Amino acid sequence: MEKTIEIQTYIEQLFTIKGVKIAEAKKKLFDEFVQEALNTEAVQTIIEQQSALMDKWQLKNHIADIIAKPLIIPNATCGKSYQAQIKPEQLDLDEMIFAEWKGLQEIGLHFNAEHRTIEGTPEQSGELKFTLLFKTAAEDKDTAPHEKIISLVVNPDPKTLWKNLPSDREGIFWKEDHVQYFGKLGEKHVVASSDRGRSHQNAGSFRDDDMAFKHIESIGWSVAAVSDGAGSYSMSRKGAQIACTSVIDYFENQLDQETFQAFENKINQYNSTRDVNLLKEIDVLSKQNLYKAVLYVHNKIKETAEQTRQSDPAQFQNPRIKNPIDYFHATLIFTLFKKYEFGYVVLSFGVGDCPIAIMNTEQTETTLLNWLDVGEFGGGTRFITQADIFHSKEHPMASRFNFKIYPDFSYLFMMTDGIYDPKFVVEANLEKHENWITFLEDLKGQNEENTPVELSARNREITQQLSRWMEFWSTGNHDDRTLAIIF
């Protein structure tokens, strides 16, 4: 009955569209026409064909929507592990009886059907294309698959964008772009590396950092110095170099023998008596000796600045800089240490933003041996070249010296901000022992590059390992890097 009504309705609508009107007198004739078998079959066939046509259109339209709908997946980075999940709202894989990802392998990727992820390590950069060949469940198995073009942006490895231009060997005060050092310091050893930063490599400019080490046999003390030349001052690289070498020179050749001997005598008395009252006297004498060394360094840089201005005045043309020594601005940290029967006496000095830290033998405690000159908004760094550090009321010179006694120590770290900034981020983190343990684990290979440094005097590749470690990538941190480890 329902089919008869449907057929009659269809014919009535068809006649109306065609402008055929059924007179009231011919209603009975029309009913007979509707019920004729040939006419019924014809209408049923038409309805079925129309339904099939609509289904085909809906399928075609759906497939077109699948092809046209953007499949937005996160950008990748060339050479870095990548994984992007395809979510149902992005692409309904369940309705597909066939899906083949074509072109992913050429990129270095593949489709993980179990987790519905595109993953792998892209081997090329650019806006890359790959194709999804698919068939839906509503289609016959013999139907040719459809193609959906998908775009993936693979960013280049930022490391590859940096140039490594050599510094000008003919430039004033040229020095090596990279230096490394390993040797004995008394009964300890030191491994160190000073590397030109990527920002300097990219511009072909000079390495501003410097370092120097010496065990001075005549007094039995070991000296280690690290300096960071202020890159915005044109001859700071020389200032850093003089700062380090002058520290060694002072304790080896210019030492005030009388004052230093009094200092040694007090330590020897303490060695015999363990009189704690002597420690205050030793502390005062240590500051006196260190102060003379610091003043000597400042004057040596000042002397070089004056000589350079006379011999090469063209180098001093910055209207904002009036004092020649300012062209040589550099920070400075240095330590002296010597082993006695009761342990190690460790002296230190620091001006600028380079930390010194010592870790005990049990590796349960790390002590920062200097405070850092850092400003809330930058510009807080002070330099060995600034005369006002010697008479500052806010930061008295005496506060820059340190005197400590340790039974022994496992590591003594000295570094410039090229290491400190990426590895510790803020000054407060230097005060936390757990951060130094993390740093030590990083050195041992717990890092993104899986680059270890075996801190052993028997390790013949220790300098090469440290140099490789120093190449670590840290976004936004491309300054010179200098690190010295005494162990």
Tell me which CATH architecture of the largest domain applies here: 4-Layer Sandwich
Number of helices: 11
**Integer count of domains:** 3
Can you say what the CATH homologous superfamily of the largest domain is?
Answer: PPM-type phosphatase domain
Which spans of ≥5 residues are poorly predicted at pLDDT below 50? none
Would you tell me the overall average pLDDT? 94
Briefly, what CATH class of the largest domain? Alpha Beta
Structural class call reads alpha+beta
> Biggest sheet: strands side by side, in what order?
8-9-18-17-14-15
The profile of the biggest β sheet is:
6 strands, antiparallel
Morphology call: elongated
How are the elements arranged and paired?
Blueprint (H helix, E strand, L loop, with lengths): L1 H17 L8 H9 L1 H32 L7 E2 L4 E4 L10 E7 L1 H4 L1 E4 L4 E4 L5 E11 L9 E10 L22 E8 L2 E8 L2 H6 L5 E8 L4 E8 L7 H19 L2 H17 L3 H35 L20 E9 L2 E9 L4 E4 L6 E3 L32 E6 L4 E5 L1 H8 L8 H11 L18 H8 L11 E6 L1
Parallel strand pairs: 1-7
Antiparallel strand pairs: 2-5, 3-6, 4-5, 6-7, 8-9, 9-18, 10-11, 11-12, 12-13, 13-16, 14-15, 14-17, 17-18
Helix pairs in contact: 6-8, 7-8
Organism: Sphingobacterium spiritivorum ATCC 33861
Pfam families: PP2C_2
Protein name: PPM-type phosphatase domain-containing protein
